[in-house]
Structures are given as structure tokens and as C-alpha cells.
Predict the 3D structure of the following.
Amino acid sequence: MNDLLQFVSSDDGVVQSWVFLCFAAVAAADSSSGVEEATWDIIWTNAIRRANVPTVSRAACHAAYTILLHTRVYTQKPHLLQIPLASNRILSEIETLAKELDVQGPPYPFDSVCAFLATCLRVANKDMHLYRMQLEEKVLSWLIDCWQTAGFRDKSLPLHLGKDLLMLFESISGFPMPVSLPCRIPLPEGQVVEVLVNEARTTVIKDYILDARLPELKSATERDGLVTLPPAPPSDDNSNSLVQPRGRERRISAFLIKTLERMQFQLDDQSMNPTAESARRSLDMAVTAVCYDSVLVLNGMQSDKRLSRCACKLIGTIIALLPDRRWTTSERALIAFGLDPLTFLGDSSEEKSAWTAMLPPDIGSGIKSRLLNQLSWENTDENAFWNCSNLLKTLWQNKPYLHGPITREHLSSVLGDHRISSSKFRLVRRLREHGINGEFDRDNFTKVDFWRLKECIPPSNQLQDADLDAFATLLYLSKGQLGGFRNEPSGSTSILGRYRRKVSRMEKGTQISPQEPIILMLLAMLQGEHPSRSNTAYETLRLIMSAERNNLPRALRLSLSENQVELEYLGRYERLQLSQVSRDLTDLVTQQSYLDSVINFPRWVAGVTTLLSEVLSSKDAFYAQLIPILRLDAEFAEQVLPILVHNILATENEELVNQETIVQAHYRDTISNFFTSVLSDKSSSIQCLRCVIDVMLHLRHFDREQTSNIGAKVIKDALSYNKWLNVDFALLAHSSITCGAYTTALLFLELAAEGHAVSQDTSNEILYEIYRHIDEPDGFYAIHDSDLHQSLIKRFHHEKQWERAFRFHGAALEAGTTIGDTEGLVQSFHSFGFDHLANDVLRTAFSSGGAKKDGLSNDISYRLAWRTETWDLPESSEKTLGLEDFAEIRDVIQDVMCLHEVAKWRTNTIPTSLATRDLTKGDWSEFLKVEDDFDFSTLENILATRISLVRSVRLKEERQRIGTLVTPFNQNLIDIETQCLVRLSKAARAANEVQLALNSILRAVGLEKPPAFDVFEEFANVLWCHKEEKTAVEYLGKLFAAGQGAFVRDAVEDRRKALVYAQLGSWSSAACLKNLEDIQTDYFSAAAALLESDNLKNLSGNSEAHNVHATVYYQYAIFAERQYYDIMKSPDAMRWKIYVDRKQREIESLDEQIRRPDVEEKVRKLLIERRAKAQKVKDADADSFQRHNCTLDGFLNQAIEMYSRCLGISDAYDQDVPIRLCSLWFAHFEETRGNFQTAVGNALQRVPSRKFVFLSVTTTTFTVNKC
């Protein structure tokens, strides 16, 4: 127990939950008798204190409930083991919990929470002090306030049953006759469940045999779980004998009615397609309401007819949905089980789950009745649905059955359905429709749908523009984000992937024929879109069925039962089967043609698979029939290659295991040497390398038996699946990187490291390349590189610290070590937005040969081309996008989104407006719109594309310009380009990319003289971000210093001027450019004065205008609050007070000396002069002290006033300002100096009370304590 107590304070909620579950188990077990009272006291206290922690609440309440159930004082079963816990400790903790329940109770009415609170109420009723506290009211208020029913699309059930809520309702109402509802929970199928059920059934036998112990004899009523009911309630004619429900009961009924009406409204909404879980959740609440209403009558209170009607209507609606074919039988059974409290009469499932030791001598022990009851519920899931359906059929038999529309979830499931193999990419259009209509689940798309769509993208010659456009739209809706690789591995929905999963699930001793996936592949090809491939597959299947008419293994026939009819037709008329061929597998390494063909993948894979099939055909004619299709169809040969390799190796391995002496594994050595040669050949095509890697990954799904040096089987090697072939894992890791399979490369590198088969330098080189391409940023820091210079450069690139990388690359170039540094320099320039400079460096590198030396990629050349309008590009080599290259996939997504911008430019209304030179005919508002939640890299690419498009049209127009005359069309283009540049500058500032912001705004400034006000203002903001505070203030201040005409070309309304004044005030204050009084007078007061003339009554629907006012007031309030605290912390006030006190004492001393009669007249005059000087100094200090206090009070009152004006005029700052306002108010709650209380009163009158609701508890508690 002491060890468990150490983990109670763990930060991990899962650990804490397990600890509390262990405590509960100990409390209910026999071993708890040895635990001291002090230990139980600590456990009890911790359980109560963590009852309100969301991640631990359920387990903590379970532990507290179990402890309370087994304490000496409150246990209702004396024979149970009793926990030594003092009653005063129990009562004090319950009181503490009850006091905080309204403010900070458990987060949700879990089953354990309901049981614990119900038990606490029972305990509280036995104590006079707790009884007077009315704990039932607190529990009811907590339950109503915290209840939140999950949405209809939720896939989970609540962690409580109807009987748990009913038990809590009964405890709150204090009913003397509670009811226990039957709520069955179907157990899942599995060996663990079977063992536990069997153990529960035989516990009584085990106890009797081992401990000679029998359970207590139960009466028939107790055994059957029957409830003895009171006399029947009065009839309607005598219903006056039932009393009216009290306040608590009425509150519970009102809560249930409100919840049921909301559920009914959601079910009536045809656009909502409830899941089985949400339907069951609604049914549970309706059944609970019906039962509670019945319990009211059972306890002598009148029924709530409205509650009954609402509940019955909801039950009828849900029952009408039971025939919905979208739900499986198990899901419909799940819903039907919710009717148990109303329809279930027997508990045969539980009778079947436990042995009964002794039966009472009554008629209830009849064998025939028990047998009949057992037979009635043999199939729980099916009967639960059909019996309840027949019982309540009249409620829904006349309801219409409506097929719901195809939902996004349906489309997602179709994409993941391996049984559908063609044209799935066309579903992208339907997904786009759902996304445009607001039914877009970004998280699901980035993690699941994107990867599924990517896998089913057809070849380029089959792609349709509409599909590409829809796919790009979905990428835009997802903001270009990726949620990481999907859970299922690549190719998991293919036939080979399903075959591997089937192998992993099969039991020991059973085998799956490798011919099964081959036949399934051929059958799938019959449904393909290419007639020639379908015909070849058809001919092959006929050959196979002719050769294997009576030789197919029974297990294979059973696994192909779904295709049995089709296969029988294919074998109805025999074909002349191909003869078996005898070949030597060593031809792979002895005949040079197999190695020379690595540059031509179709020829290579056809030759290799044909040889393997010929070798296998010597023992099985099945493989001889595959030879023609393997020579003709490279795609089929690629899929079959892993199966053929494994079959050959498995056959040889089985022969070796059965040999009495060790024989060399020739096949294993031959294939290993051949694959090593393919991987080592620099001319090998990427497809050849990928094939070898796929074979190695396929073999890892199978265990390999091995033999010892004396011929006996070795004890099973847990890692035998890595030893089918003897290929260097480091070489495989290198080849995986070449193929773009970076996570696979990491796997092989780890295997190489385990065998100490890779050097540290080679490992680091591979790791750097891996972490440059996968989405695992923290893994980079685990690389230990002895080359500190390389490690530092790699870290700068990884962390995107391009300024530091630029310094090192530049220094390296100056030193003459140019390998890799030219590319780094170009990347640095590009990151700074210096695209022309980067392009110049890149062209110089290409012309001088430095690009080839550095191995520069052409990717950045094309990225720079459209930004700099340079098109003399080097020839691009074909590039394959790796399946696991996360970084490049993200780059390609950005490229697709940029191309989509070009497509929209050419297909929307924009071409018409450009052709007519009238921009009013185009939808330019949509062109200028871009959301804020884009990642900056994606947003920059989108805006750069739009700017490039507008710029190309503008430059074409300017070539036809006469002199300096700017046409209206050209000016409109300049305005659009300027707006895009300003938007890009703002986004760059928000992302702290200040250099890119400067580049953008300078381009905007250079487009026109004088600039527009937006450009003028943004340039000042960029200057401020570059730490040019004084220049930024002076530049922005020119708007007022010399008039707007000389600096901006458009008129500036007062609202915008007020914002500028407020910005100038904030900047001047932060940079200490003026004294406080001047800042307040020149800027903030001026801004407030401009707003006073703004008639907001005429702008009631203009939220932007209201937000402008709120922003000015907010900045003014922030300034005043900061100055208040700065002045309050200043030592000046204390110093002046000390000076005044000191001078006052000096004056009093001088007065005393002057009044002395023995002082000479001459001395008295000197004393009088000294006193006059001291008085002047004192008056000056007192005046300074007074001004200090007035300034302090003024800023405090100003902050209070401006915060209240901000809240009163807009909701834009509701998350921050109420807290700031209340903090100032509470900190000076008892302040009597000046007119603070008046200022607070006026301020609170301006603010709607709803804005303080979330602080209501705090404010109420504070004011009550102060008053």
C-alpha cells in the first residue's frame, strides 16, 4: 500500500486511475484487514480531493464508494470485512466535498460518481449537521449544471447506465422505496471473457471444495431479483390521494423534459443521421424518465404527464429507426437492450453465468421452466433485437422508411473498403460537396481520407480535371495540413496486404496457401479496365483450374468459397496445361542478363519471376501456368514476386529442418547474393530497388524455423522473421532512402545497428536524410555526430534557422569548401525572400558546374522561376515521390494548391473581367480572401501565386502605357496587387518572418506614390517589428504632422485616425519617446475625442466599427493600467512623503526655538529665515506628492473607464478585459481616496452583466467576504 501511495500524486492521470482502482480492490478484498487506519485515512482523503479531477474522477469516486461501502460505521452487510475508518473523518470530507460541489464538483455523472454521491446522501441523512446542510439540493444543482449530452455523431456510449442516474435521482428525492433496473451489458467475444465467465460460474464450486464454504441461502424473491411492490396505486377516480411532487422532484422532471425535448428535436432533424450509440443514449434517457415517473407514483406522488409524453414519443421515434439498414444487427441489438428496464422479464443470461449452490424448496425450482427460459435467450444479440421489435411492432409499423443521404462518413468508409478497387478517386467530388456545405472534418481528412485518396489516384492519362479540382479544393479546406501518416500501413487494403494480416492472425499449426492471394489477384484483374490485362488473367485462370482441378487443397477451396462458382465455370472446359520446367535458381547470379536488366524494370521483374516460377513448377504445376502472364504483365509480376520468393525459401527451409544433417541453404544464398547485387548496382532503377525492399518487408510477416549444427530444431527464435535472407540491412536502408521510403529506412537501420553492421558515420548520414523527410522533429536530436561542424549546419537547417545557416555557408564559400554550401546559401536567400538573389547564385552555380558538384536539386530552380519570371531552366529529370516522404508530400501539396490558384484564375469570372478591362465583372473579393488559420508557408505560397498572376497582367498592361499615364484598369490591378502584398506582410509579421514582411511592404510602397493608407500603416508596423521604434513613430506620425495629402492618396476616416493615434500612443509609451502626460494628451485623448463624434447609433449592425472603438479603448486602458502600476512601484511617492515628514519635523523644531524667550533677536531672525526656507521646500515636496497621487488616481480611474467602454461597445475583448477590470476593482475594493468608487460604479453600469457571468462565483465570494 505504501508503494501505491507514492504514485497518488503522479502527474499522469492514467497512473492515478490505476492506483485508485487498486485501492478499491484492496478495500473489497480479504487482504485489507492488515492495513492501518492511518493509511485508509490518507487514501480516503486523496480519493475525495481528486473526485473533481477530470482524468481521475471516475476511479477516485469508485475507490471512495468502495471504502465507504466497507467501513465499520456505515456498512450494511456486517459479515463483510470492515475498514477501520473514523466516522468523523468520513463526515468531514463529505462536508468539504458538498461545500465545493456547486463550484468544483466531478466533471461528469459517471457510474461510480452516481453511486458514491448516492451513498454520501444516505450517510449524510444519518448526521444532524449534514442533514441540515441540504446536500440533496447541492447534488441536484451540480447534476443539472454539469450535464452535457454528447452529439449525435458521437461514436461512444456514456460511462453510466440508466439505473445509475435513477439511483441518484431516488437518493436526491429521498424515496423510501427505490427500484433497481435490469440493465444488461452484452459481453464481447474472446478467450479472456470466456475464462472470466467460467471462473465466475464455478466460484461457488471452488469455494465449497477448497474452503468448505457455501453462500448464504437466498429466498426465491432475492434469488430472482424480484421487488415486492406495495398495494396498487389509487385509480384515476381517487387520484387526489397522491400528493404533489416537491421542489426537488419538479426540478428533476423539468431537467429530464428539457433533455428529452432537445434529443427529440435532433432526431426530428432529417439532416442528422444518428449513430447506434447516440440512439441508445437517447433511449436510455427516455427509459430513465419513464422509470422515474413510475417511481414517483410508487412513492405516493402524482405523475408528470408531460414527462411521460415526451419520453414515450422519444421511445417511439427510436424504435421506428430500428429497421434502418445502415445499422448492423449488433448495433440494433445494442439499441434494443436499452428497452430492458421496460420489457425484460427474466434474467436467464445471469442464471446461465453462475452456478447456484442451493435452491429454496418452492415451485420456482422447476426444471422445465428453467430449460424453457434458457432456450428462449440462446442467441442474445439476435433475440434482443427481434423479440423487442415484435413486442413493440405496433408503434412503428406504419412509419415511413427513409433512406438517409450519403454522408461523409460513408464516403470515407468506401475509400477504405478493399473490396472496391476501381474509380474510388472519383469520390473526391462528393467529399468536396460535403466540405463546401460545411460538413468537412479536417482532422479526419488529414489523417485518413487524404492518404486513402492518395493511394487510389489513377495514372495521369486517366485523371480528370474535375477530380483534380475537387482534390485541390479539399486540400485548401484542410489548410494544406497533414496529420501524420495514417494508422494502416501503405498497401494494407491490397490483396497482398490482406493476405499478410490473415497470416498474422492465424493459429499455430495452421497454414495458408500462398496460391490464395495469386488467384485473388487474377480474379481482381478480370474486373479491370484494360481488356488485354483482363484477357491475360482469364487465360491464366483457365490454365490454373485445368491443372489444379482436383489438386487444390481443401483449405484453399474454403478460403476461396466466395469465388467458388466463378472458379468452377473457369475450370468447366479444360485447357492444355503448360508443362513443368526444370530450372536452376543459380542462373540469377551466373547469367549476367538478370543483372544487366536492372535498368529496365519490366524486363527485370519478368525475368526474375519467370525463373522463380519455373523453379517452383518442378514440384507444383500451379506455378508453370503463371509463366505467360509473368512475361507480359510487369504489374502482376511485381505483386507476385514477394510470394514466389517466400514460397521458394519456405520450401527449402522445410526440407532443411527435416534433414538429419545440415545441408547448405543454396536458395537462400543465391537470392541473398542476387538481391545484394541489385541493391549495390548504381544503375538499378528505383522500381527494382523498391521490389527488393518489398520482398524483405513481406518476409518479415513469417517466422522461419531454423536448425542447429546437430540437425535438431532450435528453440524458436523470436526474431527469425529477419533471417530469411542474408542481405546487408545498411544497404537496404540506403536503397530505401533512394526510393523515398524513409520510415522503412529507419527500420532497416535499426536492424543493422542491432547487428553492429553499420558504422557511426554511415548511420548518421542515413539518419540525417531520414529526419529531413519525415514528420518526426524530435528524432533529429538523438543523432550523435562527431563532426560538430556538420552537426551544427544540419541543426540550423532542421530548425529553419536560416540566418545562422547563411553565416556558416557564406564563410565556407569564402574558405573555398563549396560542397553543399551553394545549395545552403540559395536556401537561405530563398527563406529571406531574396528570390532574385537566390536565382542569380543558382544560375552562377549551374554555369560554373558547382551545381553538379553540390548535387543541387532542380526543385528550388522551379520554385524560384515563377517568382522571378525566369524561365531559362535546366532540364528536369523524372522524379518519383516517395510513399513515406512526408516533407516532399507536404511540398507537393503546396504545389497543387498553387496550381489550383492558377486554375481558378483561368476558369472563374476573372478572365471575363480581364478581357473586358472591367474588374467589377469578376469575383475579386474571393480572390483577395485567405483565412488566417493557414500555416505561413502555405499561405505565402498561395499569396505569392496570386501576386505573380496579377503582376503578369499588370506588366503586360504597362507595356502599352503612354508616358506616365495610369489607366483606371491599370490602377485597379495595382490596388489588387497591393492588397495581396499588404496581406502577405501582415501574415509574415504574425509568423515573426520580419524580413519577408519588409520585402512585401517595400514592393507595395514602390507600386505607387503616394501609397494607400493601408500600405502607409503597414510599413510603419514593419519598421516597428525591425526594432526601428523611433522611425516607425515618426513615419506614422507624418499622417497628422504634415497633413494626409502628402503621404497617402486616399481619404482617412476618423475611425482609422483614432486607431493610428492609439497605435502611436502605445508605441511612444513602449519606446519611452515622450513623457506620460504628452502621450496621454497628444495620442490617447485625441483618439478618444475622434471617437466621440462617431455616431454608433447609425452603425448598430456594423461590427467592424464597434471593434475599432473597442480596440482604441483597449489600448488606452492598457496604457493607463501600465502607467498606474509603474507609478505605484516608483520610489518617488515614498521619497516625497519622507521629505515632507522630515521638513515638518524641522519646522516644528524651528518654531520651538523661535518661541524660546532666551533666544537673541539676531538668532531669532536667522531661525525665522531658516523656517521660511524649510516651509517652501516642504510645500514643494507636498505639492509633488499630491501631484503623484492625483496622477496615480487618474490613471487608475482612466483604466477602469476605458475597460468598461471597451466591454460596453464590443465583444471582441471579452476573454481578457473582464478579468483585467475585476482585478483592478478587487485590488482597490475598499479604496476611499478620490472618486474611485464613483468611477467603478459608472464603469459597471456601462458593461452588460452577461460579460461577468463566468466570474460570477469569484465576484460573489469576494464581495460577500469583503462585506
